[in-house]
Amino acid sequence: MRSAVLIAIALMAGCRSCPDIKVPELVRVPVPTMVPVPAELTEPCAQVAKRDNTVGEAVRLANARKAALEECSKRMSQIRSLGTEVKP
After folding, report:
1. Looking at the domain assignment, is residue 39 inside a domain?
2. Higher confidence at residue 54 or residue 34?
3. How many structural domains compose the chain?
4. pLDDT > 70: percent of the chain
5. Is there a domain that residue 23 lies in?
6. pLDDT at site 21
7. What InterPro entries does the record point to (predicted)?
């Protein structure tokens, strides 16, 4: 008799209604990835050597260094532009 009561209680407990379970929602988040930098953009900047101690050499050296600086600045701006791309 005792076992019949326990079975009846167990069956009635199983009939209790459960709240609706919500299935978790899948959320996709874009993850930024590193963009490889081309090898030609990572080459060292040109080093201009001094040849002699004349005024003409100083002018040549200043012009050569200015050209090297402009070329390096151009490469740095190209590298910075690579960082704005995001690949999902």
Report:
1. no
2. 54
3. 1
4. 83
5. no
6. 81
7. LysC-like (IPR058979)
- Residue 3, exposed/middle/buried by CB under 10 A (0-12, 13-18, 19+)? exposed
pTM of the model: 0.52
Q: Cα separations (Å) of 28 from 25, 31, 63? A: 10, 9, 53
Residue 10 forms part of a structural domain: no
List, for residues 58-81, the tens digit of each pLDDT value: 999 999 999 999 999 999 898 888
Tell me, what amino acid is at 10? A
DSSP element (H, E) containing 70 = helix 55-82
The answer to whether residues 48 and 68 touch, using CB atoms and an 8 Å cutoff, is yes
pLDDT at position 57, please? Answer: 93
Q: Residue 81: inside a domain, yes or no? A: yes
Domain range holding 81?
Answer: 46-88
8-state DSSP, 40: G
